[in-house]
Write a structure and sequence with these properties.
Elements (H helix, E strand, L loop, with lengths): L2 H4 L3 E5 L4 H12 L3 E6 L2 H13 L4 E5 L11
Parallel strand pairs: 1-2, 2-3
Length: 74
């Protein structure tokens, strides 16, 4: 799959607000992927989304804990 094949796709990145998850969120957004940044702290997710959007990408912040099945509906 090439980067052009990723344009317009959606990726959900759990742990997307820090470390490798953040790097993946930013990299995929640069490739034209619409990114859902999911992590426990909404404010951290929003900060990543703001940076992605400032660079012309599309991102959605979602607070969730993948270990808590009740929060996965978000």
């Amino acid at each position: 799959m090439t980067f052009t094949e990723l344009e317009g796709k959606v990726a959900i990145i759990t742990g997307g607000s820090r470390g490798l998850g953040r790097a993946m969120s930013e990299g995929l957004a640069k490739a034209g992927v619409n990114v859902v940044v999911a992590s426990r702290k909404l404010e951290n997710c929003q900060a990543v989304c703001e940076q992605i959007e400032a660079q012309g990408g599309q991102a959605l912040a979602v607070a969730t804990h993948v270990g808590d099945t009740g929060s996965l509906d978000a």
